[in-house]
Amino acid sequence: MPSTPSNSKTGSGDYDVAVIGAGLSGLSAALRLAMFGKKVVLLERHSVVGGLNSFYSKKGIKFDVGLHALTNYPSPQSGKSSPLLKLCRQLRIPLDSLDLLPQSHSRITFGTESLRFDNNFEYFVSQVEERFPKERDRFQSLLSKMEDFPAYSIDAEELSTRDILKESIMDPLLSEMLLCPTCYYGSARKNDIDFPTFVMLFDAIFKQGLARPEQGIRAILKPIVSKLRELGVKRMMKSPVQSIRANGSRISEIKLENDECISADFVISTCGAVETEALLEPSGASSASTEQGCFSIMESIFVFEGSPRDFGWDETVVFFNDSKTFSFGEPEGPIDLRSGVLCMPENYGAPDSGSRESKVRITHPARFSHWTGLEQNSYESQKALWEEEILQQGLAYLPEGKKQMDAFKSKIILRDTFTPRTIKKYTDHTNGALYGSPKKSRDGSTAFENLFLAGTDQGYVGIVGSMLGGIAIANNRILRPD
């Protein structure tokens, strides 16, 4: 644990803090530190910020990379304790500037059984009680158990959610349906999710709700980048780290791939625990052995003329599964079509009857080794083949989706797909792991007194969670260490 007071210089480093990775957790940590006068350098291997939550344009159409939903929509019941409000206060970003559009309503569908939810938690509770009347008391007991569990504590015990649900709920279908959205939005475990993360995501998705900034992820990234510039944070883009050099119990310097060396009194790494360990020199400097994550995804995006409501599709997000049992993890084949997530971003906010371009995004688990083992021509042809399968499977979960398949296809003007190979390219995550290692370091600690982890392997997932995780490391480890 660092012992240096936050208001004093810590040593002879070029910078007070070096932050590795300009994803949302790295950006948030860097901004929080700069707000309190720290000299910060931000190192990013790519030319754009945002990491898994960035943006790009193709044929003049703008795409958000990872933004299905911004969770933790401030609800009347969450009040000032809303994590999103806390985030805005910590980074001094006005909530109104995000122009949040709330979801219409969303759905979890397993075979013929469905649970609907919106940003009113009582509606979701009523859905559970209506569909599973015999589980009413047990579900209320589970809610109480989650209320009492210290999910947000760095000392929270990483219990199996499946085990807890098995003890708490008699009908296995309800348990499986509760697991599906939370796993898809943040689990690095096969067929399970650790209970602290389950509780945090349950709160974020159901108790508070889903929204989307009108301008997408840019509404979050632009004010942060602007503030970093104003506060003099040095952003070194296209600057991949070659090694993190250790000297005894401390990190002494960071070497970039262009051979430039940077020293800092503290280092925050957001590139992942496994990835950070691989950068350490001398090799084996840390005795830690972090479990590698294996869960990755394939997502296809279909841009079409008009609105989803033209087809009678007014839902925002649909979590679907083809049977009563939810299987989650790395598939044996290229992609697992048995379950997935379908998002219609234009169904955030009030209905818009104007003719325009809209998107349908469909996500499935995918196998990293398959997609990285293909030569380029085969890779492109297989993407095209699976795009068609993904579309056929996904639209079947929408009202009259099969009947409207041909009509929908005739409106498609652009398709784009990313795979585990894409995730690896733009994040450098081992195995293209979307949520990092199954084992988390909630306090961000490592074997070195001046090196901390933030982001995915800190255990706080989603846009809001990852940003608050970066802020927590800045606050608790550097600005006001114990």
How are the secondary structure elements laid out?
Blueprint: E1 15-20, H1 24-35, E2 40-43, E3 55-58, E4 61-64, H2 83-91, E5 100-102, E6 106-110, E7 113-117, H3 121-131, H4 136-148, H5 161-168, H6 172-184, H7 195-208, E8 211-213, H8 218-230, E9 234-236, E10 241-247, E11 250-256, E12 261-262, E13 264-269, H9 273-279, E14 280-281, E15 296-305, E16 317-321, E17 339-343, E18 357-366, H10 368-372, H11 376-395, H12 405-409, E19 412-418, H13 420-427, E20 451-453, H14 462-479
Descriptive account of the structure:
The chain is of the alpha/beta class. It contains 14 helices and 20 strands. The strands form 5 sheets. The chain has a 7-stranded mixed beta sheet with strand order 7-6-16-17-18-15-19, with helices on both faces. The longest helix is centred in the last third of the chain and has 20 residues, at 376-395. The model is unreliable at 1-11 (pLDDT under 50).
Quick summary of this structure?
Helices cover 32% and strands 21% of the residues.
Task: Name a few traits of the molecule.
globular, about 475 residues, about 20% strand, 5-stranded parallel sheet, disordered N terminus, single chain, 14 helices
N-to-C terminal Cα separation, in Å? Answer: 7 Å
Class by SSE composition: alpha/beta
| Global outline | globular
How much helical structure, as a percent, in the residues? 25-40%
Number of strands: 20
**Average pLDDT taken over every residue:** 92
Radius of gyration: 22 Å
How is the main sheet built? 7 strands, mixed
Helical run tally: 14
Strand order of the largest sheet: 7-6-16-17-18-15-19
Strand % is 15-25%
Q: Which stretches of 5+ consecutive residues score pLDDT under 50?
A: 1-11
